Amino acid sequence: MGASAPSRSMLLLRIVAGVALAVVALILPFTNNPENNQIFSQVLYLAIAAMGLNLLTGFNGQVSIGHGAFFGLGAFTTAKLMTDQGMSFELTIAIAAVLAAVLGVLVGFPALRVKGSYLALITLGLSVLFPIVTKRFIKGPGGVPFLQPKRSDFDSLITGLDRDQYAYFVCLLLLVALFAAAWSLVHSRAGRAMIAVRDQEIAASTVGVNVARVKVATFALSAAYAGVAGSLSVMVDGGADASNVLLYFQKSIEFLIAVVIGGTATISGPLLGAALLTFIRRRTSETEAMAPALLGAALIAVVFVLPDGIVGGLRRLVARVRPMVDHDPEGDATPDAATPSPTPSPS
Amino acid sequence: MDLFLDQLANGVSNGVIYAAVALSLVIIYRTTGLLNFAQGEMALFSACITWWLTERGLGVWFALLISVALAFVGGALLERLLIRPVMRTKNPLNVVIVTLGLFLGVNALAALIFIKPGAEAPIMPELFPDEIVLGPLHADGPMLGLGLLLAATCLVLWALLQKTKLGLALRGVASNADSAALVGIKPGQMLMIGWGLSAALGAIAGTAAASTASNGAFDTSLMQQVLVYAFAAAALGGFDSLLGAVVGGLVVGIANSLTVQYVHALEGIELVLPFGLILAVLLVRPNGLFGRNIVERV
């Protein structure tokens, strides 16, 4: 577990927050219009992709600006299988995840040779190349690389739910499952190996961690998360699009931003970051021409105000408030809790 | 044969621009170990300033000179105000987010101030005549001119870095900031100068790119593709080598224009080439063609 065992009041706080969040998440789609539900679903799939990137970049230390390509592969896999083969949407998610993982392995092997900025560059190439190559080989109606399955193919499988509500719940279900999987992964032996490779690669190899295997496997898993997110985006946004050359590069950047402003190497960070990013973008887009300038400025401001992300900021807040409410003498009073360290500490 | 030479000239002029942007990336990488995603947009902004000055009746070369000076100051200020406070934080990704924020913000500012949507596209006057005639020799103007411009820039840069005290201090900070500080160099100042130099180079690259774009008309997407090629060039040459950046830029530029002409299988997907090149080079030599190996301690 983390650096300090949570005291009873902390545990209570967490449980209350978790239950409140769950209730809100379940009620949300019934109290909002389809337009808002679409935005909520976008936050959810963005968070899934960001969690994938977080596993790779946050917990394993490999920076990728190429996750847009895995996302795009997932989206086009789903769209293609649905339009050409008439496959059901739910089935294509699994296939998209597998294909993205395969591409992840293919990228993960050459990535073993390079580090840091160079890796960022190679993966940058991946996300820039993806729409260009797709444009060449995928021709939708009218010759543009845009595939749009029939709206009715996304009809709710559960009676009583509208299409937008169903989409929201599919995204929510996958988000919960994938975040739980990520949580248990980073608290397992394999997760500790990932973190050890991030912190001290050579030292990790001397204690018997197979560095190459850990890195490639993390790449594949992380790519699969992005592939699932891409697959979901077809349902939420109605199609897979590669007509804009820089689209998947922008997606990659969005994932990275969501991870960093949420809190690198934390479990809740990607979700919070995705929500904040979507919120900022909605707010700034009302200003039309000023939007990108404000978005850019807002990002810089977030990094200045919250250098360790939203989760880090919350932890500092809790650490400051806790001594005032926490009278439990058994509770750990280590001043250490005030310095935010990346969760689960490797030692 | 003429076609081949035309494509070669075209490749060299593009390559020069890639090389200049790659050089500016390398300068920042060497001083701060950072990939500056905003480099292309900073160059675009400088190009806009050059254009704005020429619209006010200044000669294009004089305008370029002023824009280079402004870019130097702007780059230094960016380092001091936005980059340095974030470099101090623990998460190295924060500064990447700042450069990405700049990427979005500077581009949008250029659009707001200079390139208004709906208005006529700004047109950069040509830096060089179409054809340069030297006795019996005819040469493609932009190619020769840009080549000379790059050569002159490199010479100045080389002299600055290798022959002056300032250059020694800059290199000292790049190789070991703590030791440099112990012998009395102010690393902060050197970082500001490094960013200033890089932005100034960007101003030259941006203006050159605008003047060679289709008849000088340019828009806010001017530098985006260039940046991708420049990254390829810098990776090809090794991110910490100035020579590598120049060679890489020329190789990418020439290879690209020859692929466009001759390799029809890659029609529409020419960008595959620079990344294929990067991948191939990095797999054989992870630190690029001219990069140094870095030995790591545990």
Short description:
The complex is a heterodimer of chains A (347) and B (298). Chain A is mostly helical. Chain A has helices at 8-31, 34-59, 67-85, 89-111, 116-137, 163-186, 189-199, 201-206, 211-237, 247-262, 269-285, 291-305, 309-325; strands at residues 146-147, 240-241.
Q: Could you state the order of secondary-structure elements of chain A as H and E? A: HHHHHEHHHHEHHHH
- The first-to-last residue Cα distance of chain B is 56 Å
* Largest protein-protein interface: A-B, 48 and 47 residues
Helical segment count of chain B: 11
Counting DSSP E segments of at least 2 residues, the number of strands of chain B comes to 2
Approximately what portion of the residues of chain A adopt beta-strand conformation?
A: under 5%
Low-confidence stretches of chain B: none
For the sheet with most strands of chain A, the description reads: 2 strands, antiparallel
The profile of the biggest β sheet of chain B is: 2 strands, antiparallel
Helix content of chain A: over 70%
Envelope shape of chain A? globular
Structural class of chain B: mainly alpha
Distance between the terminal alpha carbons of chain A, to the nearest Å? 10 Å
Give the overall shape of chain B.
globular
Strand order of the largest sheet of chain A: 1-2
